[in-house]
Amino acid sequence: MSSDALIRVEGLGKRYDMFAKPVDRLMQLMSDPVRRGLCMAPAKHSKEVWALRGVSFEVPPGEALGVMGRNGSGKSTMLQMLCGTLTPTEGHVQVRGRIAALLELGAGFNPEFTGRENVFLNGRLLGLETAEIESRFDDICAFADIGAYIDEPTKTYSSGMFVRLAFSVATSVDADILVVDEALAVGDARFQARCMKRIRAIQDDGASVLFVSHDVAAVRTLCQRALWLERGGMKELGPVLQVSSRYMESIFQDDPEALHPAVGVDAHDEEGSSAGGDAGVQDTAAPDVPTVHKEKPLAHWGQQIGLIRAVTLAAGDQRDCELLEWGQRCRIGIRVLLPPDYAPESFRVAFSIKDLRGHDIVVSSTDDSSSTPPAHWSAGAEVEIEFAFENGLVEGKYFLVAAVEKRTGPVVEYYEYIEGVRYFSVISPVRHFGIYQPKIEHVFKELLRV
Fold first, then answer.
1. Residue 430's pLDDT band (boundaries 50, 70, 90)?
2. Which CATH architecture has domain 7-247?
3. Is-contact 60 208, C-beta < 8 A?
4. Per the CB 3.0–4.6 Å rule, which of 203, 293, 353, 429 could disulfide with 422?
């Protein structure tokens, strides 16, 4: 492990004793000292439950580590041990520097105090001197943006106002380590954007960040690596795109036996080589169908795996390519086997283009179209949906997501979802800024002088 890490965790575990009856707790408290005095093993009157066990990782300065997992996976327990509010049962936690934490809404705030009083109270708890709080008070209030409510009791605050003030205080203390546990979920979009900008600034100053969220897009935006906890243990630790994709796959994995590679999708081993030794597997029902992709998908799940038969990326005269030019007319073709319960009013096909951090750049679905599928389409037929567009992606590397959806009102169910079905690059003779640059017409107008 690195010697300069601000957070180092080795074999961390937390055990709780669950008693069936209150008297069992009393019996254990009374019998343990007696049995130890007689050199006897303590009698067990409880059931051991491990909220967390065997977790090891480190976070160097300037890195943000995303922590993901279902409810009850041990995320909050781990953060409380890192912050010192819980004592580990086993393992070691080493932190260097000042920690600022947002573990839960309202922690460290007195609801009877005004916002102003709570700023000073919370600031003192975080290690600031009164003079330091006074010098930063105006900036704290400006970021929280709650106006005159700063002098009202915090019990009158909405959850959004509460978290704005708490986040503003926590991020004003020049902490070496910032811990955020789902606190931003209650904020509006504008506030979340401001929080992300401030967290990045804290990272740039060399602080380590632990960011817990169910919002995979937010984790991908902010973090370089991700830790996936499952039932109190480490499921995976690694690059954020890889881990978040596997996590999303597990969430939508209703039937573990169903997640086999679809026809037309490479069956790679862990090293990325094809199971059959070829560069890719083609649709056996239609030999002319191009390979779906040449790398293992990041995630592949759904209710009916195998409906997506092939995905093509075409540009100009090339029917299947991996290199696009900026401004070029492109086509994405998704060949699909219509499901047994096919209904034109609910059946949809979609794609998205993501950058290598997993951020959506382009998203489109047949739900956006005013056109409808041909009337003769029926269950069991193999069809192709083509999306045509002018490529506005700036130079870089990207990957495709292909999905077959069932939409009933606002509800979207997935027959099949493949993230990383194809990978491609974009080149451009002109340097562009941003992430997407359509062709824009510039018009110069001369205004009449009055």
1. confident
2. 3-Layer(aba) Sandwich (3.40)
3. yes
4. 293
In the block, tokens 């546990």 appear at 181
Relative to beta strand 299-301, strand 233-239 is unpaired
Residue 443 CB-density burial (10 A; 0-12 exposed, 13-18 middle, 19+ buried): exposed
250-257 long-range CB contacts below 8 Å, 24 or more apart? 251/70, 252/301, 252/302, 252/414, 252/417, 253/301, 254/303
pLDDT for the residue 352 = 95
Task: Sketch the domain layout of the chain as residue ranges.
Answer: 7-247, 257-427
The encoded tokens of residue 289 equal 């169908």
Mean per-residue pLDDT over the chain, rounded: 83
Q: What is the DSSP string of 256-276?
A: GGG-SPPTTS--B-TTS-BTT
Top-level class of domain 257-427? mainly beta
- One-letter amino acid of 442: H
Residue 16 in this model has a pLDDT that exceeds 90: no
Question: Matching CATH topology for 7-247 and 257-427?
Answer: no
Q: In 3D, which of 104, 81, 77 has the Cα closest to residue 91?
A: 81
Which among 261, 259, 393, 418 is positioned nearest to 334, based on CA atoms? 418
CB atoms within 10 A of CB 156: 11
Query: Greater confidence, 215 or 243?
Result: 243
Provide the 8-state DSSP code for 31.
H
Helix H or strand E encompassing 383 = strand 382-390
